[in-house]
Specification:
241 residues; mainly beta; 17-stranded mixed β-sheet; 17 strands; 2% helix
Amino acid sequence: MRFQEKIVEGKYNYYQHDQVYCEEHFKVFRQEASTGNFNFNAELMSRVDTGEFLKVFVDYELTHNFEPVSLRIKRTLGAHKSTERFTVDLKDKKIHYVFNGKEGMHESETAISGRFHIAAPAFSTSMLMSEAKKIDPVHRTPYNIISSENIWEYKEPFKESTLYVELMSLEPVTINLHDNELQATLCNIYEEDKIKNPNAEGYPVYISKHYQIPYKAEFANGIRIEVQNLKNFESEYKGSF
């Protein structure tokens, strides 16, 4: 097993109407090699109406070019438990999917053509697709997204969809978080292409220069996600806020 160096760690707060309802702690590791893989680990915790805690653990491995290698998601809520696992055969472009919930295990394998990103329930990994495929500075950039709606019970195989990202400014914008001035790339995320629906609502995401890890995003229903702290341990960017 190769040595892994921790290069980034941080924490997000998830707000709805200015009330924190979820926290995410994340760490990023890189294998000790010029072409070493990256590992994004995240833990999310949220209290539900029953008073119990929903915990979600994410372990995401990507190549040095940010192609997905494997994604493991583990969820616990009281007596409820489930796990999902995506394993990618990079040579044959096949995704092996396993879901294990209260009704047992479901397993499938599907061939996927072209580049794709696997969606994980962690904000720290939400813009990784733009590391593998850079955002077009002129047009909305389409990304092929693999996602699953299986949470506690198996409903259906994973599905493919398209997400569009539009660069809103060629120059970095300044945002203020926790008394810190930060330089970020501002993008809007859309579920539809501009040609199909020029009036589609986009959601702003402010992205850092650290592996496209977002600083902040705003969504419908008063939901906002903001980084509370971020530490970079690499010599080029070493520092925190």
